[in-house]
Amino acid sequence: MTQLTFRDTRDYVAIDVDKGIDHRTGKLVHADAVAPEGYERLAKCKFCKHYQAEDASNGCCTAAAPAFAAYGDMIAITCEDFTAVH
Question: What do you get for the CA distance between the two ends of the chain, in Å?
Fold first, then answer.
């Protein structure tokens, strides 16, 4: 399994674009720092089988017709079509 950055875990609470709080420990962490093993991956478009990347951060969602613009870091917790890619 790939290591996750804090920004891609359910236990990360963003303060700004660079840092946030690790909800498990209460400590300040950098968003792009590698999270310890055992952290749960947050549902984001880039982790969905319906997401097709166009470049490093933008893409489209093919779950509905017509496909629509989406970005990889978009949080998809409430998306009814989210299907995790393992």
Answer: 8
Q: Return phi, psi of residue 6, to 5°.
A: -55, -40
Ramachandran area for residue 76 (φ above 0: left; ψ -120 to 50: alpha; else beta): alpha
Q: Which of 10, 46, 47, 15 is nearest to 30 (CA)?
A: 15
Residue 16 φ then ψ, to 5°: -150, -165
Task: Give the tens place of pLDDT for each residue, 64-77.
Answer: 999 999 999 999 99
- pLDDT, residue 6, reads 98
How far apart CA 30 and CA 76 sit, in angstroms, is 22
* Residue 32 to residue 39: CA distance in whole angstroms: 14
Report the phi/psi class of residue 28: left, alpha or beta, with left for phi > 0 and alpha for psi in -120 to 50.
Answer: beta
What's the whole-model pTM score?
0.88
